[in-house]
């Protein structure tokens, strides 16, 4: 039975590595898969999913406003698919998440989405919020804060390492820009969510 999956975490938890490993397992068994990633994020190269540990794979990109249901239907006209893997799912628009739900429900193809849950200000990305509402199964990919506790938040830093608390929700970057923290250390770093005195 096809399902919509959402694998979520903070930055640098290994989401893309897990996606590429799962995709390899399908291919190794002779199954046809379809890899997608956000056009917005080209850190691994254009139309490519890459991991910090050095592995990567070519993928088809998606952009805002694109009809993913129509896109998948066109690909299915070429032959069956065992699974669709989608990286950078936080950049999906809510309507696109609904389109992926139609892929699962109507076209009977499993869709595995991998992405961030919250931004550097502790707010849900719209795509992630819709995935949290619609996904049949959700799996947290865990990483740790410098203190050893589970990291659930992320801070954005400038070139000098100063924590930023304002700015656009989307800014592409890696270890040089983002640090994953537990909620307590995120609150200390950002001054957000302070208790009333």
Automatic annotation (TrEMBL):
GO cellular component: cytosol
Binding-site residues, ATP: 9-16, 87-90
Complex formation: Homotetramer.
Top-level EC class: transferase
Binding-site positions, substrate: 170-173, 178
Lineage, uppermost ranks: Bacteria, Pseudomonadati, Pseudomonadota, Alphaproteobacteria, Rhodobacterales
Name this polypeptide is given: Thymidine kinase
Compartments reported by the entry: Cytoplasm
Chief localisation class: cytoplasm
Catalytic function, reaction form: thymidine + ATP = dTMP + ADP + H(+)
GO-annotated biological processes: DNA biosynthetic process; thymidine metabolic process
Binding site for Zn(2+): 145, 147, 182, 185
PANTHER family with a match to the protein in the record: THYMIDINE KINASE, THYMIDINE KINASE, CYTOSOLIC
Active-site residues from the entry: 88
UniProt entry keywords in alphabetical sequence: ATP-binding, Cytoplasm, DNA synthesis, Kinase, Metal-binding, Nucleotide-binding, Transferase, Zinc
One Pfam family it belongs to: TK
Family per record: Belongs to the thymidine kinase family.
GO molecular function annotation: ATP binding; thymidine kinase activity; zinc ion binding
Protein EC: 2.7.1.21
């Amino acid at each position: 039975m096809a399902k919509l999956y959402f694998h979520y975490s903070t930055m640098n938890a290994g989401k893309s590595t897990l996606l590429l490993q799962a995709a390899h397992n399908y291919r190794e068994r002779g199954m046809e898969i379809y890899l997608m990633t956000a056009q917005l994020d080209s850190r691994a190269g254009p139309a490519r999913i890459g991991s910090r540990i050095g592995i990567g794979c070519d993928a088809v990109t998606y952009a805002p406003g694109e009809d993913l249901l129509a896109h998948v239907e066109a690909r299915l006209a070429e032959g069956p698919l065992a699974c669709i893997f989608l990286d950078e799912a936080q950049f999906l628009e809510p309507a696109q998440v609904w389109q992926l739900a139609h892929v699962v429900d109507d076209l009977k193809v499993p869709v595995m989405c991998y992405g961030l849950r919250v931004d550097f200000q502790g707010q849900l990305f719209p795509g992630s919020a819709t995935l949290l509402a619609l996904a049949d199964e959700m799996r947290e990919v865990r990483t740790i804060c410098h203190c050893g506790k589970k990291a659930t938040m992320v801070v954005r830093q400038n070139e000098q390492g100063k924590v930023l608390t304002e700015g656009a929700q989307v800014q592409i970057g890696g270890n040089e820009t983002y640090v994953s923290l537990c909620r307590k250390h995120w609150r200390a770093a950002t001054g957000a969510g302070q208790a009333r005195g």
